Amino acid sequence: MRIAQVAPLAESVPPRLYGGTERVVSWLTEELASLGHDVTLFASADSLTSASLVPVWPRALRLSRPAPDPYAPYSVLLEKLVERVSSFDVIHCHIDWLHLPLLRCLQVPFLTTLHGRLDLGYIQTTMHSFPQAPFVSISDNQRAPLPDANWLATIYHGMPTTVLEPCYEPDRYLAFLGRITPEKGPEMAIRLARGSGRALRIAAKVPRGESRYFKERIEPLVDGASVDFIGEVGDNTKENFLGKAAALLFPIDWPEPFGLVMIEAMACGTPVIAMRRGSVPEIIEDGVTGFVVDNEEQALAAIGRLGTIDRRRVRKEFERRFSAHRMANDYLQLYKMLARDSCVENVARVPIRQIVLPRQRRREGVSADDDLASRKMPQSDRAPSEPDVGEAV
User: Is the pLDDT of residue 293 over 70?
Assistant: First the structure.
């Protein structure tokens, strides 16, 4: 298939340091290309890919100085997309809402994966303006604020199994990886480490808007020994950082849509201790790949039970549930269905139950490819007299 991947412009693809969405777009793009599909990536010019790259802006916006008005590069992105829109069987967007009116009017097959939280008021107003636009959620919990949106599927993120190698002989320290913001729980992570008598290593981005929080609430607690702040880490150092950790602490206090760092830890064989928020119960199997807890007391007790977790089993569960190959094949089914329809509005006629994987079957490692193959779409739900499209992702 001829597939367009439209990436955010904040970071390069893949990102040099922090950038979860861009990292997922890279993994998906590379897996699609390795499967023999004609993939075009719309991203900043400093991106790296084996697919065809359409450079939208000279550098990722986070690194551009002076920082441009973001409307300018995204306007360029949409123009470049329009110039090539007839070249694709399907367009897969990862840029939230900006493309919706344009692609809807052009009547081209497209879908949008939403990567962020959806419990903000303005999002409901936006979504109600595009009732037939097809969306993919990255966890079932992410959908909760917008149950009536045109959800095609929940597709969990996946990463190549070769990116991070497992470590089965860890050190005693605990790890915190992500960004410094109250909702991510770095203060609780520090308290848990001290309460357990273990060192904590923090590898995190400090967003500009959180610099005061970091200086006032986190930096005074960093002593370089019991609490060590490393800063941002790239893929070349992440494996050692996560793999050598006794556990990853994920003490979030917000509706996390997915939590990429959890599967990165699992890839290293490292168990995760996470608060029961957002997607956590869908990603972490309690007692198998880590512990899902409801409060700080339970989290502290979980640290004491880390010896009951089999790190080899953690890695196996990652390979079974969160590989890039599984993710790409799940998206393949949606691409084929969208390309088969003559216009994107026809998607609304397809019963969602035929596309969405039941949560239990996803936990058992059943891909969308396997699930849909066992349940053929009724002929009445197909676009009349249209041939099937060849394989994708």
Answer: yes
At 155, phi and psi to the nearest 5? -125, 115
Do the domains 174-321 and 2-160+324-381 match in fold?
A: yes
- The fold for domain 2-160+324-381 equals Rossmann fold (3.40.50)
Q: Measured on CA atoms in the order 253, 254, 255, 257, is the torsion positive or negative?
A: negative
Q: Convert the pLDDT of each residue in 90-139 to its tens digit.
A: 999 999 999 999 999 998 999 999 999 999 989 988 988 999 999 999 99
Collapsing DSSP to helix, strand or coil, 57 comes out as coil
| More confident call, 388 vs 218 | 218
Residue 176, SS3 per DSSP: strand
Q: Tell me if 27 sits within 8 A of 160, measured CB to CB.
A: yes
Domain boundaries, the chain: 2-160+324-381, 174-321
**Which tens digit of pLDDT belongs to each residue from 234-249?**
778 999 999 999 999 9
Tokens of 23: 């990292």
Instruction: Report residue 69: phi and psi, to 5°.
Output: -60, 120
CATH 3.40.50.2000 fits 174-321, yes or no: yes
Position 208 scores a pLDDT of 87
CB 157 within 8 A of CB 138: yes
Q: Which helix (H) or strand (E) holds 326?
A: helix 324-340
Residues in the chain: 393
